[in-house]
Design a protein that fits this description.
Layout: H1 3-11, H2 29-58, H3 66-94, H4 102-128, H5 135-154, H6 158-163, H7 166-174
Biased composition (Low complexity): 181-205
Protein name: Small secreted protein
Region (Disordered): 166-205
Length: 205
């Protein structure tokens, strides 16, 4: 039921600012300093996005209950929305990158990150509004959300690509904070990440 959503997340450009390293010794100290300033703030947000994506990926079984899927997806979209908002704030607070056209590139990138945040917040509202008592209707609703997610993921990221190109992109690629994190979620047998653990009398450390 949730597989289309998971596929849309894994297939789209959901993790922005995740760069593969390419070496160049020509970067100025100013560009490297700017990249470090951004990437130090970026990493926690990329981790949140990776974890949210992984939570949706886990909730893809055909026998998953609609209410459980709804709860997981809603929490994940909220987390991704907040992460994109924080990414926009990080790029904005770093100031324009010290390259030609840096201010224009920065402003466009911030605008796109904020638009992505709003788009995921809207998806969260749509997931929350789905009818969970009728599994067929719920599945249809999820399909529509997956289609929207594909559009969000594959369009409107030109400014971000520009931000990650050239001298600035090379400098950012060197920063550990801008490299793709590994999702940190419990195994499938554990409590789903979006569900609060039930109280248990014994607690193992």
């Amino acid at each position: 039921m949730n597989k289309k959503l998971a596929a849309a997340l894994s297939g789209g450009a959901v993790l922005v600012l995740t760069l593969s390293g390419c070496s160049s010794d020509d970067n100025s100290d100013k560009v490297n300093d700017w990249a470090k300033k951004v990437c130090d703030q970026v990493q926690p947000q990329l981790q949140k996005i990776a974890n949210a994506n992984a939570a949706i990926q886990q909730q893809t079984a055909d026998n998953s209950k609609p209410a459980d899927v709804q709860k997981t997806d809603s929490a994940a979209f909220q987390q991704i929305s907040q992460a994109y908002k924080a990414l926009g704030a990080a790029v904005e607070s770093a100031g324009p990158p010290p390259v030609d056209g840096g201010e224009t590139t920065q402003k466009k990138a911030v605008k796109e990150l904020e638009a992505s945040s709003a788009a995921y917040a809207n998806l969260q509202k749509k997931v929350d509004a789905l009818e969970t008592k009728d599994q067929a209707k719920f599945a249809d609703g999820l399909k529509g959300i997956a289609d929207e997610l594909n559009k969000i993921s594959t369009s409107g990221d030109e400014a971000l690509k520009k931000l990650q190109s050239g001298e600035v992109g090379t400098a950012m690629a060197k920063q550990k904070g801008c490299q793709k994190p590994t999702a940190s979620v419990p195994p499938k047998s554990a409590t789903p990440p979006s569900t609060a653990p039930s109280a248990s009398p014994s607690k193992k450390s």
